[in-house]
Amino acid sequence: MNSDRFKNYQEDVKHLVLDFESMERHGDSRYFDVDQMETIIDFYLDTADGDMLEKSVRYGESLFPASNEIRLRRVHLLCFKERYKEALALLNQLEEMEPDNTDVLYALGVVHSALDQPRKAIQCYLQAAQDGYELGLIFSNIADEYAVMSQFAQARNYYRKALKENPNDEHALYELANCYEDDGLNDRWISFYDHFVKEHPYSKVAWFCLGEGYLSVQLYEKAIDAYQYALAIDTTYYFAYLQLSVCYCALGQYYKASSILQESLDYAEDKAYVLFRIADIMKQDNNLVVSNIYYLKALKEDPCYAEAWHALSLNYSMMQDYSAAIDAAKKALKTDMESPLYLTTLALIYADSGDTDNASRIFDLAIPYYSDFEHGWIAYADFLISQGRYQEAIEALSQGLPDCEMVTEFNKRLALCYYHCGMRNMLYNAVRACIYDDPNGEKLLLEYCPELGDDLDVMNIIDSHRQESLSN
At 106, phi and psi to the nearest 5? Predict the structure, then answer.
């Protein structure tokens, strides 16, 4: 029997639970009073032992069929099994018998929340709050429901109420910061947490959230100070290490950023992810050799880490080690054979290596997955343009254009293709689309296709647009 499950419980709870389990193993029956049964059931609920939870509830009901407290614990069992409609039906019965029972009202709020009925959940929580019991938890739950409905002002109000009741409510601290972020209230975000840490200087989460506020407005040095305070309180605070590394990267201090992540490895559950982040930082610092070492370390931790295989393939390609790049790209693709990103990357590596036949073959496999991946159409068009296959590039770009957001990127390529195919009217349309829909469209078009600067008809269109812009 695993004794660790009792480490947060008193000896009397341990003895009750072990007595119950001994009875179950031997097929015996014995009497527990109602308080004892509630204690036993609550232990299994707290430790998420679904099998014993069901057995204890059933036994409790056999001893005390009229006990509403035991029936309420059946509600918890039903919620544990995600059978919320059954839980709601039972709660409605209990509410009829005890309309002022705070536990029933609170449970009704939880069930309505699970059924995606936030307004009903709020009403139940408000009723449960009337007796002043567990106000911090109830206010936090109400705030969660308002946040679900994107009513962030109300959510902030209730998270603040929750924190007045319980300043140690880490959930409320995190979620309040998210609400400030969602409404773009950066100054109020920073002001609240700056005041909060003065009143509660040992709240690591409050310091962390203050750091997040400073990070959101790019005050990196102040963010660093806040994260370091959080780590001074708790050296195992993994997320503070991650955000510290973000700040140091933003300041161009890549060695410091990677060192911080190295420190976090002792506290990280997902070491592969941390090593992946270090590899990315080394790549930002243009140190591809060291970057590869860390991608490989991440893959040693998790051989199925597709993003690491993909990033490694890009590094090898940049180093012109195409054999290694192709091998890594294939391993990334093996984890998701329908990934348009991984297929496109493999195709481009083949193209860069000079293997246009395999590049064309992989692009053919990728195209069916490009409906939501406009970078794929652009990559395919660039591949075709590089081979002078302008008409095929036009067909590819035309397929992706109707649903794309990168309109200028598509149209500047179309303009180049129309120019080389002698399709003058279509060329003029593509030029107009570039310069009228994007304030930087003219610059992007002429940088991509400088030969258009020598085309009088095209330049007349551009000059006409310039004059219109000046007159407006």
Answer: -65, -45
CB 383 within 8 A of CB 410: no
Cα–Cα distance for residue pair 261/245, rounded to 1 Å: 7
Let me know if 166 is exposed, middle or buried by CB neighbors in 10 A (0-12, 13-18, 19+): middle
Instruction: Locate 136 and state its tokens.
Output: 């911090």
pLDDT, residue 451, reads 94
Task: Give the end-to-end CA distance of the chain in Å, rounded to a whole number.
Answer: 81
User: For the chain, what are the domain ranges?
Assistant: 1-81
Q: CA torsion 155→160→163→164, rounded to 10°?
A: -140
Chain segment 432-463, per-residue pLDDT in tens: 999 988 899 999 999 999 999 999 999 999 99
